[in-house]
Amino acid sequence: MDTTVQVRQRGTLTLPASLRARYNIKPGDTFRIVDLNGILVLAPMVLMVPELAREIERARIEAGLSVEDMLDSLRDQRARYVQERT
User: Fold this and answer.
1) CB under 8 Å to 5, separation ≥6 — which residues?
2) Is 33 in a helix, a strand, or coil?
């Protein structure tokens, strides 16, 4: 796809609706601009925390653990760590 956009006075530009729809770009999405010797690449910023939280939740469910089980295990590990350090 070959599209022309214009930078406005305050430095803003508008992505065409067809590109926003094609790549599911929503208001508030964040992007990084990478300068490759004069070629600007617009790359979406992927928030890692929500992705990691989903992965942890998936692993917890697959392991058959409850949140309480995980918290109990964490408390036990913390107590062992404190005993080893003293």
Assistant:
1) 13, 14, 15, 16
2) strand
3-state helix, strand, coil in the chain (%, to 5): 50, 15, 40
Its pTM stands at 0.50
* Element of type H or E holding 45: none
Amino acid making up residue 35: D
Encode pLDDT of 33-54 as tens digits: 999 988 999 998 877 778 888 8
Closest of 13, 16, 47, 53 to residue 30, by C-alpha: 47
- Give the integer Cα–Cα distance in Å for 27 and 13: 13
φ, ψ of residue 42 in degrees (nearest 5): -100, 115
Residues 33 and 37: their CA atoms lie apart, in Å, by 12
Between the CA atoms of 72, 74, 79 and 81, what dihedral angle is there, to the nearest 10 degrees? 160
